[in-house]
Amino acid sequence: MDLTGYKMLPQAPPAPRNARGQIRRVGVEIEFAGLPPADTAHLVRELFGGELNAVSPHRLRVDNTRWGRFVIELDTQYAHPDREALDHQAEGDDEWARHRHQLRVEFHEKTRELIGDMVTGLVPTEIVCPPVPWNELDELDRLFDALREHGAKGTDASLLYGFGLHLNPEIASPASHDIHAMLRAYLLLAPWLREQIQVDITREVLPHANPFPRDYALKVLAANYRPGLLGLIDDYLDHNPTRNRELDMLPLFAHLCPEHPHELLHSELTQPRPTFHYRLPDAQLSQPGWGAVSEWNRWVEVEKLAADRRALAKRSAAYIRYYRRPFYRRWTDRLRHLFHSA
Prior knowledge:
Layout: E1 25-32, H1 37-48, E2 51-56, E3 59-63, E4 70-74, H2 83-87, H3 95-119, E5 125-128, E6 132-133, H4 137-149, E7 165-169, H5 176-197, H6 201-205, H7 214-221, H8 229-239, E8 247-248, H9 250-256, E9 277-278, H10 292-307, H11 309-324, H12 327-341
Antiparallel strand pairs: 1-5, 1-6, 1-7, 2-3, 3-4, 4-5, 8-9
């Protein structure tokens, strides 16, 4: 659908405020090619104000915008100085030891800068936006329009581009039954979301947004499955010992249960936060009018189903009945459906 000239507005979720009564916020991350980090950072500052700060040649920040800090960087750790290497103390207190240490630091920084120069255009630029109130996402969409106008390339610009847009919607409630309901609703609507998004073949092949295993879906959707928070987390980790899920629950579980011993919840790549980490959407920058609002409005359908417990139970039961049937029966039904819809 061509949305040129049409301003899409964010739909209200069933629970527009968090447990503290504040408007819920949404973190947004976008990957793209065609625009290096420095140019992108200047663009962000032009749009939203703030102060431009270069952390390193390929990692910049725009601080003190109306929403907070934007981080713009090449999406590879090898283009950025390693904090551990920079913080390593000189071996000895004499002047020669300090001089050698300074030379090592400078060599490390220069090497990482050169790596970044070499891979610019091969790895994506990433913008990590500050959390934005859901009802202001249309203002954030000015960024997507500007990226498009300045030549940024999204997922479908090349078979090499497995770029995505991630949403991090703040949870409305930390109660385990509410989180369980959201997970059930997502499992039921995941096929519809994939169909709506028309997930790019490159991202389907790459592991970053893999679907959930069928046996896990059947377990979570069962009417007699009523775990507490710890049981929900343990079952998730048992069936999904990976960050690479279309709805990554690890950051939320690490936030809700910081004492949990599983190594994935304490990984450097898992940042505890009270959000769902929704990784499925493509970066559809070639689509005029596409932006964070488009994907937020699709996500809201998950929240609507989660809030309607009767519909959720009915659809869960139908899912289980369907997938408990023998494979050949399901295959016959699918062929019959395709034949009649042709």
